[in-house]
């Protein structure tokens, strides 16, 4: 589905009119030059992962809008990207006429993509699994993803990047399941563990 069609459909489902130019602003954010992974490619891959699993959502339009905004703000020098992305989504929803409850729910979904802990909310579980679907990609795409992540942190020296990245991958591998839904776990868990284990070995060798 074309981005513009998807965009207008989700706002219509929410019964909200987005401000003119918002789509261009969001797409422009994902096209910022400092990004290597958190780009329009990532956004498209998230939608490709979401579409066949959309039946898992309780509030599908809110989950889909959260996909649009979850990396709308991305700066590897900052620690509040998800908070700023959530605040942006909340603001646009309220200004478009959404109720405060719906705006707050979308903001909370975006915040769940901090990946601090497996979420308990069903829609957050779905969104987080969509965001993590790259971990279960085929080996060529996963290898490209790792290069893209390194590119976004090119300013970090290798002696700091490698242990930091190793800690992140280890935290995922230590979870009983990387994925929070049985739908994604059944399809991607085994391959994600192979990918992460292979990456971790390269980082610590």
Attribute tags:
Catalytic domain of cyclic nucleotide phosphodiesterase 4b2b, 205 residues, mainly alpha
Which radius of gyration do the C-alpha atoms yield? Answer: 17 Å
The string of secondary-structure elements, in order, is HHHHHHHHHH
CATH architecture: Orthogonal Bundle
Sheet-strand content, in percent, reads under 5%
According to CATH, the homologous superfamily is: 3'5'-cyclic nucleotide phosphodiesterase, catalytic domain
Tally of individual domains: 1
Largest sheet: none
CATH class: Mainly Alpha
Helix content: 55-70%
Termini Cα gap = 43 Å
Q: What is the count of DSSP helices, taking H or I runs of 4+ residues? A: 10
Shape estimate: globular
Number of strands: 0
Structural class: mainly alpha
CATH topology name, in short, is Catalytic domain of cyclic nucleotide phosphodiesterase 4b2b
What ranges have pLDDT less than 50 throughout 5 or more consecutive residues? none
Mean pLDDT: 97
């Amino acid at each position: 589905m074309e981005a513009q069609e998807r965009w207008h459909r989700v706002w219509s489902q929410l019964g909200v009119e987005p401000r003119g130019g918002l789509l261009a602003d969001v797409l422009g954010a994902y096209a910022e030059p400092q990004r290597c992974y958190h780009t329009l490619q990532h956004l498209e891959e998230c939608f490709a992962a979401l579409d066949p699993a959309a039946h898992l959502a309780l509030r599908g339009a809110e989950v889909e809008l959260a996909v649009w905004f979850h990396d709308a703000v991305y700066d590897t020098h900052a620690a509040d990207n998800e908070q700023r992305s959530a605040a942006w989504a909340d603001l646009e929803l309220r200004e478009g006429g959404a109720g405060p409850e719906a705006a707050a729910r979308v903001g909370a979904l975006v915040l769940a993509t901090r990946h601090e802990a497996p979420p308990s909310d069903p829609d957050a579980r779905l969104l987080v699994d969509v965001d993590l679907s790259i971990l279960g990609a085929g080996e060529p795409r996963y290898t490209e993803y790792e290069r893209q992540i390194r590119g976004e942190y090119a300013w970090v020296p290798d002696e700091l990047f490698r242990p930091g990245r190793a800690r992140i991958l280890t935290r995922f591998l230590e979870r009983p399941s990387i994925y929070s839904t049985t739908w994604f776990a059944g399809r991607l868990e085994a391959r994600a563990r192979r990918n992460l284990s292979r990456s971790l070995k390269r980082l610590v060798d």
